[in-house]
Automatic annotation (TrEMBL):
Domain Tetrapyrrole biosynthesis glutamyl-tRNA reductase dimerisation, first and last residues per copy: 422-519
Any one Gene Ontology molecular-function term assigned to this protein's record: glutamyl-tRNA reductase activity
Membrane-spanning segments: none
SUPFAM superfamilies linked: Glutamyl tRNA-reductase catalytic, N-terminal domain, Glutamyl tRNA-reductase dimerization domain
PANTHER family: GLUTAMYL-TRNA REDUCTASE 1, CHLOROPLASTIC
Domain Glutamyl-tRNA reductase N-terminal, residue spans: 109-240
Name of the protein described by the UniProt record: Glutamyl-tRNA reductase
Amino acid sequence: VDELLCALVSSIHGLREESALAGCFHEGATKSELRKHVGRIDQDVQQWVGRLSKDLPRDLDDGCDAELLLNTIQEVHIFAFRRDVEDPSWSEDSCSRYAQALLRYSAETSQGEPLITEAVCLCVHGRAEFYIAASETRRLAAIECFDKFARSGCGATLEVEDRRLFTKSGREATRHLFEVSAGLQSQVPGEVQVLFQVKACYDRTVADRVAAAEGTGDAKTIVKMLNAAVRAGKLVRSQTRISKGAVSASAAAVELMGARAIGALGRPSVSSACVVGEGQAARLLLIHLAKQHPDLRIHLACSTAEAAEGIILEAKKAFAGAGSAVAVRIAELPELRCDALLLALEMQMSAAVRSESVAALDQTLRQLDSSRRMLLIDTSDIPVWSVERASDWPFVCAHGSSDVQSVLAKNIVARENEAWFARDLLSQQIDDFQVWLCAQGGFPYLAALQARGEAIRQNETDKMALKLKGLKEQDREALDVMTKAIVTRLLSPVMDSMRGPEDTTHDKRDKIAGLRDIFVLKPHPNRKPQLPPPANQ
């Protein structure tokens, strides 16, 4: 504020001096000249304030005024760190222990109630993301508590400042997690593995709470947030094509095989295929062939049948369907009579195996004629067999690594286009969760109002004790049920209004603040928010 006032005063002094020199304040000066000067000052001030606001943290979400912040509403903050996957101190177990240590640190250092009520660590994409929940009225204190924890050494490697990537709060934190779950924060949009990681974090968090005898019925904020993020990730993948199309070389080769079958073979599908290779690429080709074409007869050709059986066994661990592949020797390749050959020759293969593979392939292609055609796709990372050689045999349709890369590029562009639709879907999911989160802040006040109504009912019943003395026990129980029902019915419209599904976050805050102020309520100490999430989450 001081800087802004100084800038305004300096600008006004500058205007006076310039205007005096130009004669703008003298008699006969035109008003348009003054307007131009004032307009330039206004534009300069707006640009200066805009630059200043970019450097300031977003203290309040959704334009919420400080007066509307409620200590019963929880807010989520994210602290992301660069994570070394190979470093044991950054393993998922270690990061989870840091989160638990953070809760203990908050309980030990906070005066009164702990600043941080929940803490969870999500490990994804080479990052360790710590999610903490705290009352929105204690936002800055909670962030400061985390920073002190990171610098204290309790968080082990967290105190290394160059590892800190970003910090997000409130709605931006919710948006980040939902976009991570939907695959919008991945290098390849729509990546499925990240959804599994978020789901695993949710399962682990629920299991930890059950093991700690906390149960899952008190609607913990971060647990609900993780669950909502998983649902949002599934929704995006089911209603858009962001996860469609191969984005790895092996998957793209299999997709290319299916797309070129009718042109190469004269029929819409391949009935049998053989993978030639002995490394990781061959294993991945087996897995993707089995996944995308479950009815396909698959062979794996290696230098020995034992080597092929070992690769098939490894592929079966990743996908059971890959176990149906048949192991053969490369020398048997000409006898297989397959519709498609997928080459996956790698650098670690011996020179003898490479030569044997090329010889067997040449012999296989020589046997082709008009009655027997073949589709050949080369994904090898070494120049052992050139696709151009296939031009010597007219009954072979050959595709090399450049064709596979073209498929990859096309699919990635398509996914990036789908990301726009995915963000539109997520916006509604984020709004729904934020409204649900605000609604939680009303339940402690509703519980307090219920307790007050019950106290009034009990007090009035006690006053009438002498007159009710002659009632039978059965009649007294009926009277209690009736008076409790009256109190409940009186409060029912308030509760229904608090659950209003069409409310915005501002509506929820206004209702909660109004409820608190009208009845002069304090949050009920023994009641946790329990409003279920909206049905469309």
